[in-house]
Design brief:
Blueprint: H1 7-14, E1 21-22, E2 31-35, E3 41-45, H2 53-56, E4 64-70, E5 74-81, E6 103-105, E7 118-122, H3 134-141, E8 147-154, E9 157-172, E10 188-200, E11 203-215
Parallel strand pairs: 5-6, 7-10
Antiparallel strand pairs: 1-9, 2-3, 4-5, 4-8, 6-7, 8-9, 9-11, 10-11
């Protein structure tokens, strides 16, 4: 089951201390903890992690993501490219044991390597731990400072790009957070999972979001013309029926 490290923070938000709870917890590197005036604990990295030769060879142009590696959490988890149908909401992976270990990507863009905007991923959180879903593992161990490697394909050739988590935010489930959907800001990965308290099937009261920035590649990346595309945040769920705000594909992952 999920350890509720976020309950005290969520409770503070419910009490009106903050509408958006910014949580930047210590990562694998050294971190310095600060206490904000409203009482939330905020941590930020105090060291610059070394850049490996592998990350220096990261893609200098856009590519289609196929797997994601987060050391200590998942290795080459499959990425499902799930385009929206018209104005439909962001979609999630199938509600299966396999889908619990996969990321859904809001295809077709932004892509890793774009100069602007957020590459949107989401994953399931389940109320049980066998098998554990990606969302559960991320709530347990994914922190500011964590390394992320996105693997993919460009023009038939393998590509990859390294990222480092730089911000972690928890919001209420009924709260709109447009920053997650940005297509005009700095290039980031943006992961979202359900968090907080499970009030019923597919009904969690908060969402946890992580932002990760690319690093290691010094060459300019491909410019992608930004295009506004606001949408409500997804609601990944453990229920067999499509939860609210999610459009599940009729057949997927077979």
């Amino acid at each position: 089951m999920i350890r509720r490290r976020w309950i005290a923070v969520a409770a503070a938000a419910a009490a009106g201390l903050a509408s958006v709870v910014l949580v930047e917890l210590p990562g694998p590197a050294d971190a310095g903890a600060l206490r904000s005036p409203s009482g939330q604990v905020v941590a930020r990295s105090t060291t610059t992690p070394p850049v490996s030769a592998y990350c220096r060879r990261g893609a200098a142009s856009t590519f289609r993501p196929t797997t994601v590696t987060i050391p200590g959490i998942t290795r080459k988890a499959r990425v499902l490219a799930l385009p929206r149908h018209g104005a439909a909401r962001i979609r999630s992976a199938p509600v299966t044991d396999r889908g619990a270990r996969e990321f859904a990507w809001d295809a077709p863009r932004p892509r890793p390597g774009n100069r602007h905007g957020h590459v949107l991923f989401n994953a399931h959180t389940w109320p049980w731990s066998d098998p554990i879903a990606l969302g559960n593992a991320m709530l347990e161990r994914f922190r500011v400072g964590h390394k992320v490697v996105v693997h993919g394909v460009r023009n038939g050739h393998r590509a990859h790009l390294c990222y480092r988590v730089v911000r972690q935010v928890e919001i209420r489930a009924n709260q709109r957070y447009d920053r997650y959907y940005s297509r005009t800001g700095k290039p980031r990965l943006a992961f979202m999972v359900c968090s907080g308290t499970r009030r019923g099937p597919g009904d969690w009261d908060h969402r946890m979001i992580w932002f990760a920035r690319p690093y290691g590649v010094q060459r300019p990346v491909h410019h992608q013309q930004p295009a506004p595309h606001p949408a409500p945040h997804p609601t990944p769920s453990e229920t067999p029926s499509p939860p609210p705000l999610i459009v599940l594909p009729p057949l997927l992952g077979g």
